[in-house]
Specification:
Strand order of the largest sheet: 3-2-4-5-1-6-8
Structural class: alpha/beta
Strand content: 5-15%
Largest sheet: 7 strands, mixed
Shape: globular
Mean pLDDT: 86
Order of helices and strands: HHEHEEHHEHEHEHHHHHHHEEEHH
Low-confidence stretches: 106-115
Helix content: 40-55%
Number of strands: 9
Distance between the termini: 52 Å
CATH topology of the largest domain: Rossmann fold
Amino acid sequence: MARSIEELISSVKSYRTPLGKFVDREHEVAKILGEIGFGLSIVVGPLGCGKTTLADAITRALAEDDERTAIYVAHREEAGTAKSIVMAPRFSSKELKDIFAELVDVVSGYVAELRGIVTLIDVLLRICRRVGTSVGEILVFVDEFRSRAEEARQGLEIDANYVARMLVEGMRIKVLYLTSDATATKLQLEMGSKARWYIVWNLPREAFEELYNVVRPRIDFEIVWRLVGGNPRELKALVEDHGHDVESYVGEKIAMVRNVIEEFVREEKVSLREAMDEIKILVEDIDVAGYHRIWSYVLEKNIVIDIDERFRKLSSIPREPWIGKENAFQIPIYYWIFKTIARYGEATPKRILEEIGKA
């Protein structure tokens, strides 16, 4: 039985996240299931904004939908070992689960080589033919896509061509590559019209406050918002990894930014004064900063991200000091660190929190 968008949104909202409660994302669910056309799409967004959680929740919500088959695929490195995850909740019955298990090792091998979608969909069709069921509309999430490796680029090209061919043959397929790799946008010219590009953002303020009230950090909400800007993973890190210690959290981010600045000075062979000029531009007009040398360094480290008109918006992007029209800081703490360095020449947790308090 086909489930309506409203029913699927209700199922997604019941999903349990690492922070306990799934909040917001109704618009994103509706757009992924309804507005995004068939074919291959690439969804970018800040690291930790909730792309994986959203994909997992939608995949599980579609488990009992007879007209849609959802599959979640991820390739990860854990303790130096490559690990592939292939999840298809629709194949949870004993018969289908056994068939899927029989073939999943082959699929995982191809996923590990980033050539998995072709094999995965072929396996899916074989399973459905064997048990005499219809596959219906196919929705595949490919998580943790990394664009920097040449084999990843080749794999994406293979998958795009395959999906295009299957669409011509009358199949209804949506393949969504999810990535937090801000440099993935460099693939746009190479892919051309073979892929559509979307962006998903951190939680909006009202939804994030709802999550904040579930987690109950021992920190004022306004401070938390100006540190993580609606990013669930960063909220979790602040509470669990740093034990609600704001100065510890800020100190870790300062160390990261310092490393980026040192790398920029070393690689570009610029003086500290020249580096400071670039930093001031980054803070004063992040859209203009996209044309300066420092941009590639902060983009590479996922400190900033492109949000311009090349991307169709799955989420609304708020107006905040750390967000421009074309570019943005992924989370606001980076904005405050660079702003403090631009103003004082250095940054400490105490001074940054003073800057946040003045805003």
